[in-house]
Amino acid sequence: MSFLRSADVGYRRFLMTDRILDIQNLKTYFHTQEGVIRAVDGVYLSVRRRKALGIVGESGCGKSITSLSVLQVIPSPGRIVDGRVLFYPEAESDRPVDLAQLKRHGRELRRIRGKDISLVFQEPMVALSPVYTVGNQIIEALRLHEPHSKRRARELAVEMLDKVGIPNPDVMVDRYTFELSGGMRQRALIAMALVCGPKLLIADEPTTAIDVTIQAQILDLIRSLQTDMDMSVMLITHDLGVIAEMVDDIVVMYLGKVVESGSLHDIFDRASHPYTVALQRSIPRFQRRGQPLEVIRGNVPDPYTRPQGCEFAERCPKAMNRCFQDKPAMAEVGDRHSAKCFLFTDEVESAPGREANVR
Ligand code: SF4
Q1: What percent of the chain has pLDDT over 70?
Q2: Which ranges of the chain does DSSP label H, i.e. alpha helix?
Q3: What number does the ligand 1 atom closest to the CA of 328 have?
Q4: Which of 137, 164, 202, 327 could form a disulfide bond with 349, CB atoms 3.0-4.6 angstroms apart?
């Protein structure tokens, strides 16, 4: 592949870091009667081992579809049309598994789903079955991957419920999900996701459906379990406040593309892309009480008719003439900090090799 032969310094540097997931030029499209929606359109990102990566952006930016593409659980009619999703199960492994190449319903991908890589969805009532007890669902997830007896699997399910902070776990294991509060359901879902000890947890807006006090508890729980279980985490959210508390690295997405990536401090202290700056300004702050809340003007462009130039041009306060004609290439703006904007480069988006300096 051309991007692996690329002499790009930034890409080679990130190749040397200990990563567990490496997404390269991922494209996930939805072919509909009205046209093609390029929900994920050439995304590059990587998740470091035992670190948390946050993917942030407005609704419709492609962050959820990026995460669902990792395990090929994309809703129909979406499908991966190009790119690689390299998973490195072992720390020193030179032989990643390309998840994008595996059969969607094949044995190998089913073995990885729930065992090595787990997903936590935003709405536990949808993700959990109402007709089976919490225990049954955790035990099923466990016995699918591990040869435990029913009795041992139940013991492990109770242990896991205890670990995620559910009181009286030996009683709650026999409860149905409709008997649990929203926060307890989300904890049960996390227990189910973690019971096989995954190496990577993908959490898609895990606190959206619960109130703010419980939200803080769930985020603390994920963070502490990440440390206890030596996991990597990919956290998807539209909430920069959540990101600030949780992650080591951040990727900012807009209209199916990564527009900025860097460490937590890069993005919060040295935000470079005008979209990232606008997102930050739209966070309500106590110090600005009494002042009108800043919003990002305009709307995300129609997915069927993408702009010719920079996707953010219509909404960008710094847009120049060329921004409406050409798409900028990703440019390094610091050490392992990149932004896709003509304020930092004269180069236009071109071959995949040039894009590869995205971390
Ligand atoms: Fe704004 Fe131009 Fe940069 Fe796009 S390339 S974010 S329009 S300044």
Answers
A1: 91
A2: 2-5, 9-15, 63-70, 107-112, 124-127, 134-145, 150-163, 169-172, 182-194, 212-228, 240-246, 264-269, 274-281, 352-355
A3: 5
A4: 327
Burial string for 106-144 (b: 16+ CB within 10 Å, else e) reads eeebbebbbbbbbbbbbbbbebbeeeebbbbbbbebbbe
Question: Residue 237 and residue 55: Cα distance in Å, rounded?
Answer: 6
CA–CA separation, 53 and 212 (whole Å) = 22
End-to-end CA distance of the chain: 17
Domains contained in the chain, CATH given? 17-103+202-308 (3.40.50.300), 117-197 (no CATH)
Q: pLDDT per residue over 51-60, tens digit each? A: 999 999 988 8
The residue whose CB lies within 8 Å of the most ligand 1 atoms, and thus the one to mutate among 259, 338, 341, is 341
Q: What is the pTM of this model?
A: 0.87
Quick one: pLDDT band at residue 74, thresholds 50, 70, 90?
A: very high
Q: In a mutational test of the pocket of ligand 1, which residue from 312, 315, 346 has the highest number of ligand atoms less than 8 Å from its CB?
A: 312
Determine contact, residues 210/218, Cβ cutoff 8 Å. yes
Q: Is 202 helix (H, G, I), strand (E, B) or coil?
A: strand
Tens digit of pLDDT for each residue in 164-214?
888 999 999 999 989 998 888 888 989 999 999 899 999 998 877 677 777
